[in-house]
Amino acid sequence: MGICGKDLIKDGWFSERGALWPGQAMSLEVTEVLYSGRSDFQDLLVFTNPTYGTVLVLDGVIQVTTRDEFAYQEMIAHLPLYAHPNPVDVLVIGGGDGGVLREVLKHPSVRRAVLVEIDAAVVEVSKRFLPALAAGYDDPRVEVIIADGAAYMEDHANAYDVIITDSSDPIGPAEVLFQPPFYAAMARCLRAGGLACCQGECMWLHLGLIRPLLTACRRVFPTVGYAYTAVPTYPSGQIGFVVCAKAAGATPAVSARSPPPDVQARLQYYSPAVHRAAFVLPEFARRAVEGEGEETPAAGGDKKEDP
Fold first, then answer.
1. Is-catalytic flag, 119?
2. Which of 45, 107, 146, 216 could covalently link to 57 via disulfide, CB atoms 3.0 to 4.6 Å apart?
């Protein structure tokens, strides 16, 4: 039946433990449990915390808190979107909380934003308890499809300028989003000159996952980069992004456009300077990402099978 989020609350504290971050846990005080239930795919838990606000947990793993969510949502969305000169049609795979969609809609060039989420319960729970993230669902440019993202892309070749995969970790319903056929389908779904951005795990914990993930992407994309952001409530406080360009010689590490002043005033993390800086990695991670030598046991973390 899978994990029950409420069972992870002991003495008024929620603790996030997982095989992908062995030997550590993130604990948050629980002020109030707002929702606890199970969908056809996973366990859902929503609670409040005095420091981080409302917290969404899926299968025991923190996905969103209202205090620090912008650091993830802005970067996974704006890295590919501002690297593209004129994104018109945008596809979001996963991201049922609505945060990525909210950021996509800040681009006036976007005429159509399609969100494909496999679990309708995530969308409904987020609309109810995370309205600041889910507000974009009411935008007339938005289409929501409850379906498998990989299957959807197979039926929509050359349809999108930018694809953003906002996935949880490669276990449970998100496992397919880390497999080589998914990246191949993503490349076919992109138009010429298109860009894709995928959640790329934590450099402190998952170099053993990141290296084969990048290898798989490089088999289908001529240009692949790795960037990162800081999110306090994610394991080790950091998470990465794999940014793929369909054009050879593309430079996703440099923004093609800048946010207009009114948009930049609403952004809390992203800027063109942060865009460039996000691709500058610490040496241990750069060596691993670029395939120089072998990562150290401390940097490599757990050794998982190739995605």
1. no
2. 45
* Residue 221 bridge partners (DSSP): none
Residues 6+ apart with CB under 8 A from 265: none
The strands making up 223-230's β-sheet, listed across from edge to edge, are 142-146, 112-117, 89-94, 160-166, 190-199, 238-245, 223-230
Predicted confidence at residue 2, as pLDDT, reads: 53
Which DSSP category does 305 fall into? Answer: P
Closest by CA to 165, choosing from 230, 225, 96, is 96
Q: Considering 97, 161, 166, 169, which one is annotated as catalytic?
A: 166
CATH topology assigned to domain 69-300? Rossmann fold (3.40.50)
| Domain 8-65 fold | Spermidine Synthase; Chain: A, domain 2 (2.30.140)
> 3-state DSSP call for residue 28?
strand
Domain limits, the chain: 8-65, 69-300
Nearest to 95 by CA among 75, 112, 118: 118
Give percent of the chain with pLDDT exceeding 90: 79
What is the pLDDT, as a whole number, of residue 298? 36
Q: Is the pLDDT of residue 295 over 70?
A: no
